[in-house]
């Protein structure tokens, strides 16, 4: 493809679109199942594969590239992670691309390369796709939407309604890295930093726990962060989620940016962490399993679910208590 | 939900987003499988259902509403049609929504109502979704992306490489209605009209043909229209596609708008038509089957695939010939 920038004609179904699909998309994402000439594709899932699970996610992160990832790798990780926390192994993805006229082809190439590398590492294949180009001013550069199909052991039941009072709450690593890394990449406050997004597949973390008998629920704390997952648990169980500030891992750089800008790290997005709720008897086992993995070496037991009104209580390091309210304003839009 | 317009906070994972999902999306699209609290959902497809087929599509049509449909019903029909022309019956859809800050909730409600009605008629369920809100100026009001999962008889093989020289080409109804209806709805040329989009499910049309032994290939001529489907056939077979202008159904109103603006109707999008390629022995049977359906009463045999160079030839009504070139410029962006 000779063009340096995407034009409207790259989305019209004609020659330029065909070249974009064949020479750019298929070059990065090609595999045995992706047939750029087909309307739909058969998925080779057999009975042995287990129960089929599906999820979908949109991505609008700005900037498109940041330390630790880009919107392409994020789409693979984010969608794969939604399957992983449901106890599934991801297999096949579909991809929708909305490109704003004028996007540099070079940027698109890097995004697709990031996507291809993440897909290869996760052993998933993109089996169907669609591309639309919108006029300059009608898009934010690039939006992606991915749907993921995975399989899990039939009968897997991980859900908020399985949580019981007394259960332990754990997190697999420091929170808020993604939110702050993306914010720093915007350079909008004159701040810069070395922080990388935590963006990664959580499949090793979720697979490690999947056969633990006391496992109730897992979720990746993305938009709205840890506090929002805690609220979902409180609302779903009608019980109190109690978190201990001293035990919640937060990197120094995240902490200091939050202090400077008045953000609360508990609401910041992660893209490679898991929150797990498990019977208290199995909590130590989770820590041992997670800490044996590179992805989980900073894992921590951070709180519990308790009898009490449906709310989220943070025990502060000074020994006090404060409520973590449900998120209202959006401190960082287009973070994922 | 009390807000009249969508705000960034409706996409942040917090309270307003939860209300938008629970009170607007779930009210229109709710079903037994859609769990707005789950990361991923199990799909109840059993062996009896046949081979699983998947497809995906993005929608950016402008305006969001037009005579005969809206972006919501279009997303259901467009994605369902991609499954239908692959010989499948649609079952489960996922939905991604990209909303531009400021969109009227009233418009969103009408779009979702259109989507719900189309889904109900097609007997498909939306089993997973995601919503993102982007800042004013970073989106075109509303974009949708849908992935559809369907099933078909194992071993169904409809593909361009099954086409043979001598095969007949048929279309199920008049072409270009969608393109012109959407263009008229923009009122950008001071033109108005009564024309409705042909937007509809083509499942009755495709199901009618699926057991015909000589059926080679079906496609819905959306972006790039009939000429683009013909080009795909010519390129895929390495043969000449010959179309007869006199036999191609085009409504008078489409014809006159095309004359006025210098458009070629063969490149205009349809959203409820099927192009079928079939052995010449079965062509009459296709016409009989289609004409017995309300969706196919203007069906016509419009041409054939012939030995010769890979190109598309139009026999004009005056007895001449012209090549239909591969689409280059985009006469009507954001048409689907």
Could you explain how this protein is built, in words?
2 copies of one chain form a homodimer. The first copy, chain A, has 336 residues and is an alpha+beta fold. The first copy, chain A, has 2 domains: 37-152, 2-Layer Sandwich (60s Ribosomal Protein L30, Chain: A); 160-323, PurM-like C-terminal domain (Phosphoribosyl-aminoimidazole Synthetase, Chain A, domain 2, Alpha-Beta Complex), CATH 3.90.650.10. Chain A has 8 helices and 14 strands. The first copy, chain A, has helices spanning 15-29, 71-85, 105-122, 177-186, 203-209, 225-237, 252-261, 283-291, and strands spanning 41-42, 51-59, 65-66, 69-70, 89-100, 125-134, 142-152, 168-171, 215-219, 240-244, 275-278, 300-306, 312-315, 321-323. In chain A, strands 9-11-8-12-10-13-14 form a 7-stranded mixed beta sheet. Chain A has a 4-stranded mixed beta sheet with strand order 2-7-5-6, covered by helices on one side. The longest helix of chain A has 18 residues, at 105-122. The two termini of chain A are 29 Å apart. The mean pLDDT of chain A is 93. At the A-B interface, helix 1, strand 1, strand 2, helix 2 and strand 5 of A face helix 1, strand 1, strand 2, helix 2 and strand 5 of B. Strand 2 (51-59) of chain A pairs antiparallel with strand 1 (41-42) of chain B, so a sheet runs across the interface.
Instruction: Please estimate the helix content of chain A.
Output: 25-40%
The average pLDDT value of chain A, as a whole number, equals: 93
Structural class of chain A: alpha+beta
The oligomeric status of these chains comes to homodimer
Question: What is the CATH architecture annotation of the largest domain in chain A?
Answer: Alpha-Beta Complex
Shape call of chain A: globular
Query: What proportion of the residues of chain A form beta strands (DSSP E)?
Result: 15-25%
Biggest protein-protein interface? A-B, 77 and 77 residues
Strand order in the largest sheet of chain A? 9-11-8-12-10-13-14
Listing every helix as H and every strand as E from the N terminus to the C terminus, the arrangement of chain A reads: HEEEEHEHEEEHHEHEHEHEEE
Helix count, DSSP H or I runs of 4 or more residues of chain A: 8
Compute the number of strand runs of chain A: 14
